Amino acid sequence: MVEDEWLWGWDETPGIVSVWAESDGRATVWRRLPGSGELICEQERFSPWMLVDRLDAVPERAAVRELAGPGELRFLVTAPDLRGFRKSESALVLPPEEQYLVATGRNYFRGLSFNQLRRMQFDLETTGLSPENSRIFIIAIREPSGVTEILEGEEKDLIRRLVERVRAIDPDVIENHNLHGFDLPFLERRASILGVPLGLGRIGGPGLRQRPSRRRFRFVAPGRELIDTLDAVLRYDFATRELPEHGLKTVARHLGLAKEDREYIRGDRIFAVYQRDPERVKRYAASDVEEVAGVARLLGGAAFALARMAPRRYERLADAGAATGVIDPLLVRAYLRAGMALPAHKEGDGTPHSGAALHLFASGVAQRVVKADVASLYPSLMRAYRIGPARDHLGALLALVDRLVETRLAAKAAGKAAPAGSVERYTQEALSAAMKLVVNSAYGYLAAGGGLTRFADVHAANEVTRRGRETLETMCRELAARGVTLLEADTDGVYFAVPENWSERDERRVVAEVAALLPELVHLEFDGRFAAMLSHEPKNYALLTYDGKLLLRGVAFRSSRAEPFGETFLRRSIERLLAGDVAGVREAYLQTLDALRRRELPTFDVSSRVRLTKSPEEYGETREARRELAYEAMLASGRNKWSTGDRVRVYRTQAGAGGVVDEEDTAGDRRDYDVERYARLLRTTFAARLERAFSPADFAVVFAEPGQMSLFAPPLTGIRTVLEVSESK
């Protein structure tokens, strides 16, 4: 019961959808009743508090309670108002909402499903990127019911109407893609310039507030949660590594959310298109908010599930790291609930952290491949050997990991049992994903150096790593003893190839036998079987399933910076390679080369995605000393205004200059790219990913220039792939 309180809180008040608190102990809580969906607003009082390590700065009007245990932060100070208190650098002072949630044991969303939130999406269409000299000309709104509305007109009136619609719709959550990176900063600045009150919150005066975050700052509208779906996309791709890019259109296509007749318009041409074809732009804007709603529904469940556990606002958990953003507040709540003093942040003693185990046993092409998965190896070892931080005298971190693992396994099983596409399945899968995220961060929390986490302990982390190496070595030794060929092993599991006469039953038997030899709580599971694998480098490989599906893993095969023509070639050639069709690999190379030289490929296909890290002014200061393709491309395309952090696609022209291209509007594509540069890139960068699949002589034959095949070259039908076995770490 105590450990459940640490994880879930102890106050079962249902339906909290937003909390706003002030430093004087006033809290406003909005709850949506689970049965009726009615929204109620409640005024609460709490005692503002902080933890300090000494009492010399505590004023007389404050109440002080000394906590038990050896932690440095042993004095719990409460007062009617904490503003103006002098505090030491080691003091713990949470935002008022978190003080309220920790003190009361309340959490968001008890008794609610994700679909019961009132979620509204809005998106701005602007004449440019800078709010100083650009304006808003369209605002697209999607209501919780799914109805889409397009606001047009004079900008001042547009902003007023947006505020009116927000108040009328009264959403719990406002969403958009890159909401905090573009829409809210632009809207806030334009409203300020035009003198329009921006009352998007449920309480308080007009204007947005700000809070710090991992990426610059975020805006806050009291009473509503402002959710940027880009955060959910980044969190999802960190786990899956399957998204080619993180922009809304790309993600929507990847997830199957984009309609077949979806309008695509290049960003810098939207206003020009609107002037001659406004209906097209309105369709474009409507699709944006519809896709945002879909992305939030599919990928937003993890943050929603975390908000049901951790004592933080939903919008903070949506962009928080799992270690300091989720585990830290859980530990703070656990210690205060137990009346125990917390340790202060502390630098390590200089002991280096030993890295994770990683073995590459073979490179090249292997047939009949099996993956044995170790579910959360390091957290499992922490649990099995009770390895926790030395300063965690309460044992809270291990207790939380225990409960998180149990909750995750239960949610995973419930999700599999629920009907496909059902609300129950989405809910349970989201909960499982959230638990996995936090569990896997427990080791990182333990190993964090530089005093980044309150309970960092490099000695305990190194002991976990040592146990991990022992466990991995046991797995590999026992698998090899049973006749398999080891390919790659790390903390996620082991890939190995099996003899030709083995059945799936044999594969599962071997995994089960080795699993029985591992420490209790360390689970080795049969995780998949594949027809073939190309092992390129550690953590960089390609897999072909028995039903013909190709899976690419690692930056060698998937990178947001890679040119699309190269990635297309890789996919085609690796499919043929793993199917044993060497002639098909050669054909894919020659066809790509021919398409380049005939300029049959659109310019987008040779462009690479880059992030602009310098402002126009900063680049201007260094331009004479060093010309950089990305910025020269912007200037050559007539774009002399951009923001630091913008991502654009650039390419090199035949004349050696740079150009900017956009996949969403290919009209007028000049295809003036430097053909020979990209032909060289095809061989030296992309074809090189297949180098380990052949002997050097055979690789030279497969990727020889057209018309330059040696008279003594072996026929393609005689070339075979290779698998070079040699252990390295």
Features:
single chain, alpha+beta, Nucleotidyltransferase, domain 5, Palm domain of DNA polymerase, 7-stranded antiparallel sheet, 19% strand
Please describe what this structure looks like:
This protein is 38% helix and 19% strand. The longest helix is centred in the middle third of the chain and has 25 residues, at 423-447. The chain has four domains: 2-109, no CATH class; 114-301, Nucleotidyltransferase, domain 5, CATH 3.30.420; 347-388 and 457-551, Palm domain of DNA polymerase (Alpha-Beta Complex), CATH 3.90.1600.10; 564-726, Topoisomerase I, Chain A, domain 4. Strands 14, 15, 16, 17, 18, 19 and 23 form a seven-stranded antiparallel β-sheet that branches. The protein has a five-stranded mixed β-sheet with strand order 9-8-7-10-13, with helices on both faces. With 729 residues, it is of the alpha+beta class.
